[in-house]
């Protein structure tokens, strides 16, 4: 597992851009467990039929974060989310990237901890070359 810690509000956007250049990704936004469906920012909408997707944050008592349906990562999506970078820490529990039709995440962003995780350690040199300092462990 690779770990990326940075105080830059746009770390998660930079990482999504770099990873989505390598492969097609779907994005899922998870809000805090006490959030309401109307709390999702555009273009995310609550999942009507939640998939059993792997999550990155667990809560005591088994509470589950409220998650969106999948949204395909595109340049248009990233442009629209760029406007929200400063607010992400306030409303987002986690932002996860999944390969299409897969249930295990490939990257996870936890804004309140200012940390990103990348599952595949073989991507360390690729991320470092893109200016994203990733460490294993």
Task: List the topology elements.
Blueprint: E1 2-5, H1 11-22, E2 26-31, E3 66-67, E4 71-72, H2 75-82, H3 88-91, E5 94-98, E6 107-110, E7 115-118, H4 124-129, E8 135-136
Antiparallel strand pairs: 1-7, 1-8, 2-3, 2-4, 2-5, 5-6, 6-7
N-to-C series of helices and strands: EHEEEHHEEEHE
- Overall mean pLDDT score? 86
Distance between the termini: 6 Å
Helix content, binned percent: 10-25%
Structural class: alpha+beta
In total, the number of domains comes to 1
Radius of gyration: 14 Å
Shape: globular
Strand content: 15-25%
The total of helices stands at: 4
Number of strands: 8
Question: How is the main sheet built?
Answer: 8 strands, antiparallel
Descriptive notes:
There is one protein chain. This protein has 137 residues and is α+β, with helices and mostly antiparallel strands. Helices cover 22% and strands 21% of the residues. The protein has 4 helices and 8 strands. It has helices spanning 11-22, 75-82, 88-91, 124-129; strands at residues 2-5, 26-31, 66-67, 71-72, 94-98, 107-110, 115-118, 135-136. Strands 1, 2, 3, 4, 5, 6, 7 and 8 form an 8-stranded antiparallel β-sheet that branches. It starts with a strand and ends with a strand. The mean pLDDT is 86.
């Amino acid at each position: 597992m690779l770990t990326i810690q940075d105080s830059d509000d746009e770390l998660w956007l930079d990482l999504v851009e770099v990873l989505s250049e390598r492969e097609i990704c779907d994005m899922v936004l998870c809000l805090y467990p006490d959030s309401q469906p109307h709390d999702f920012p555009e273009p995310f909408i609550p999942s009507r039929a939640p998939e059993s997707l792997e999550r990155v944050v667990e809560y005591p008592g088994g509470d589950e974060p409220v998650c969106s349906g999948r949204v395909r990562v595109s340049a248009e999506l990233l442009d629209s989310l760029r406007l929200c970078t400063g607010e992400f820490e306030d409303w987002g529990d986690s932002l996860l990237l999944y390969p299409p039709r897969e249930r295990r995440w490939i990257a996870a962003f936890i804004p309140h901890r200012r940390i990103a995780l990348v599952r595949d350690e073989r991507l360390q040199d690729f991320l470092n070359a893109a200016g994203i300092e990733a460490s294993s462990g």
